[in-house]
Input
Amino acid sequence: MRSDARRGGRLERLPAVIIPVLVSISFGACTLEQRFDPELEAVEVVGDDTVPAEGFEEPGPPGPPSVTPEEAVTTTLEVFREAVRVGDLSLALSLFHRDARLIDDLATGVSTQATRGETLIDVRRRYAEGLRLQSEVLEVREIEGSFLVSSRSVVVDSEGDPGPEAEREYFQESALLVPSTEGWRIALFHRSSLSTLQNPGT
Output
């Protein structure tokens, strides 16, 4: 009985300010326990790793910006032209479909029976001699999942000037691009020279 009285006496001797604090802590703990929601838990900790909780999907890396098929085929042609101009013929040839046909009036030093590689080598020779072209796309038309791209090029000088209208040299380009597992590939590329006396319309 004396022991109980002593324990009771100790509580009674606690400063009056401590009791409200203890009550507040106990009440707060109960409140936090009631508000806990297991669905708000983001991850489940296992050792040093974190595992996404069920229903939680981690964001993946940002993907490349989406482009339209029209933009993709015109970009493929731009890469092809630039690869030929700078002499990266391996890249240029890789953009052809395996059964592609190439007809290019810029290749003046080869026969009509020349291979695609031989034709591109001769076109590259023309660029190395100082040929410069300025190209513009006239039309992009879809044909049963493939795309026909019509373009026009004009010969320009080192300043990018095509010269007087009556003396300009134009080339008409037609390219058929087909889809493949590796992207768009050129099935037909035909570049023909237009008369310098002709003022081609758009």
Q: What stands out?
A: The chain has two domains: 2-52, 69-193. The helical segments are 2-13, 18-35, 69-86, 89-94, 116-128.
